[in-house]
Amino acid sequence: MKPVYLDYAASTPVAPEVIVAMQECLGLEGNFGNPASRSHLYGWLAEEAVENARAQVAELLNADPREIIWTSGATEAINLAIKGTAFAAKRSGQGEHIVTSTIEHKAVLDTVNWLAQQGFRVTKVAPNSAGEITAEAVQEAVEEDTVLVSVMHANNETGVINDIAAIGAVVRAANAIFHVDAAQTFGKLPLDMGTLAVDLLSASAHKVYGPKGMGALYVRRRPGLKVEAQIHGGGHERGMRSGTLATHQIVGFGKASALALESQEADNQRIAALRERLWQRIAQLPNVSINGGDAQRLAGHLNVAFHGVNGDLLLAGLTKIAASSGSACTSASVAPSYVLAAMGLSSQDAHSSLRFSLGRYTTEEEVDAAAEVIVDTVKRLLASQ
Ligand SMILES: *Cc1c(COP(=O)(O)O)cnc(C)c1O
Fold this sequence. Notes:
By secondary structure, the protein is α/β, with parallel strands linked by helices. The chain is built from eleven helices and 15 strands. A hairpin with a 4-residue loop joins strand 13 and strand 14. The longest helix is centred in the C-terminal third of the chain and has 36 residues, at 247-282. 50% of the residues are buried.
């Protein structure tokens, strides 16, 4: 028997409905043409499928389909958003200062660190103890020549949600561009580009029951917002991202978005109830707490500190559960999670933390089985210490 999957924040299985839609874009009998082929039916049909998917992704954001740029995932969307605007702003003499947070995904942190090597100035805002990046903290960090602010919508480790409406207002007032890494929230929380002061937003298909290797960048159509291409050749995607469009991946992302629009509310309610059921069982153990428990969180995230228990031994003991540890293995050592560290957790508590993340296909039986294994394993470890 495979372990119970409680790692939906890392990736989700592709929804059966999405698999069917993708399969229809592969073989000889299917929609396999190049969407850029303008001279025959195969190309026209592929283009129609791509544009249908673009409308599906746009609808979830209440955006114009022309504001959606296809990418190979959130990592590429983030690179395009941050490098593309930073270089465009620098070239036009608008400034060289970038604001982000210390708890961003590596796709953001490594990108801004690289830009710092290229001469940009970078300020990283720290979260409060609940794990939130506040609008006040962003306000303090922006400077006269700030060109770009990049803050994630929800954190991948804790599920803590940032108030991007309030942060957006601060960024607008500072006359800067606002990029949001929404890889954890696209299709899970309402995102209305009609009301949010967000200029750029990155999304990933494989976090919402779509395929891996697929994502999108939302680019607001407004004067003065310029995103320089990072991948050249062919001029696809309004010149911002060249490369033959992967029809099957795009159609899969579109279908996953349409499903999310239908089911996100019901999914969230069911998943939150299952998460609460899991927590009630774990809470019977001594010295446990939820990291980010004082903040608004995504329905599926449960990041638990088992104070006094070695998290890696715990994870190793939990062979019947697939979850994530509060540590990140680097080549040389096991470092505690920089996200939990930034929230003020001691290295020991960060090492004692595990992330369980539930999703659309999590069942009550799975939660009960997982809870039993967690409680038994923690009790055994505590007894043997
Ligand atoms: C998964 C994730 C990414 C990277 O997305 P990919 O599509 O896997 O490249 C970026 N940011 C956050 C917050 C994520 O959870």
